[in-house]
Amino acid sequence: MSFFDKIFGGKEEAPERKSFWKKIESSEDLAKAIEASYHHKIAIFKHSTRCFISSTVLKNFEREIDSLDQKPDLYYLDLLEHRLISNKIAEDLGIRHESPQLIIIEDGKVVDSSSHEDISISQVV
């Protein structure tokens, strides 16, 4: 990033996600995540890449995950890039859209959901 980009808010590159995330970028990815929930509990983290609060919550959540010996099944959705999928989650699972949002799914149904500072790894493990 150039000096002027730093001062005037030039294009910032998206940070790489941690390796434990499985990305949801299509309806097929969402279907696979829901299917996995019939075998074990999963979590979908919906993140707004332009929101400082969402970024802060995501970083704190990732720190919690890093401290675990065994990682849960975690899915990541960039809701700005994949807004239609975010809307599909809300519609198909009957849950109100929030951002950031952690949605816990078991047997194809939402069993827990939280937003902002209420997001914690304790919901998943």
Helix and strand arrangement:
Layout (H helix, E strand, L loop, with lengths): L2 H6 L12 E3 L3 H10 L5 E6 L4 H15 L6 E6 L4 H11 L7 E6 L2 E7 L10
Parallel strand pairs: 1-3, 2-3
Antiparallel strand pairs: 2-4, 4-5
CATH topology: Glutaredoxin
- Indicate the mean pLDDT: 89
Q: Spatial order of the strands in the main sheet?
A: 1-3-2-4-5
| End-to-end distance | 39 Å
Q: State the name of the first-level CATH class.
A: Alpha Beta
User: If you compute it from the alpha carbons, what radius of gyration comes out, rounded to the nearest whole angstrom?
Assistant: 15 Å
* Global structural class: alpha/beta
Strand count, sense and closure of the main sheet? 5 strands, mixed
Count of β-strands: 5
Overall structural domain count: 1
Order of helices and strands: HEHEHEHEE
How much helix, percentage-wise, in residues? 25-40%
Number of continuous helical runs: 4
The dominant shape is globular
Query: pLDDT below 50 for ≥5 consecutive residues: which ranges?
Result: 1-14
Question: Hey, roughly how much beta strand do the residues contain?
Answer: 15-25%
Write out the CATH superfamily name: Glutaredoxin
CATH arch. level architecture:
3-Layer(aba) Sandwich
